[in-house]
């Protein structure tokens, strides 16, 4: 019975923390669009031409042995 005096307030604090996190995420618009991300993988990404402003610029990381 004595353990309940400690665990119930701790559980309430944890629940309040997660409620606070949920409310802040909701206010920031985290749950605005829940439909389009699951369809995003079906569309091909468009490749844009890269501007070569530096003459020694490489396209990606290279490994040297």
From TrEMBL:
<feature type="region of interest" description="Disordered">
    <location>
        <begin position="45"/>
        <end position="65"/>
    </location>
</feature>
<keyword id="KW-1133">Transmembrane helix</keyword>
<dbReference type="Pfam" id="PF03597">
    <property type="entry name" value="FixS"/>
</dbReference>
<keyword id="KW-0812">Transmembrane</keyword>
<feature type="transmembrane region" description="Helical">
    <location>
        <begin position="6"/>
        <end position="26"/>
    </location>
</feature>
<protein>
    <submittedName>
        <fullName>Cytochrome oxidase maturation protein, cbb3-type</fullName>
    </submittedName>
</protein>
<dbReference type="InterPro" id="IPR004714">
    <property type="entry name" value="Cyt_oxidase_maturation_cbb3"/>
</dbReference>
<keyword id="KW-0472">Membrane</keyword>
<feature type="compositionally biased region" description="Polar residues">
    <location>
        <begin position="50"/>
        <end position="65"/>
    </location>
</feature>
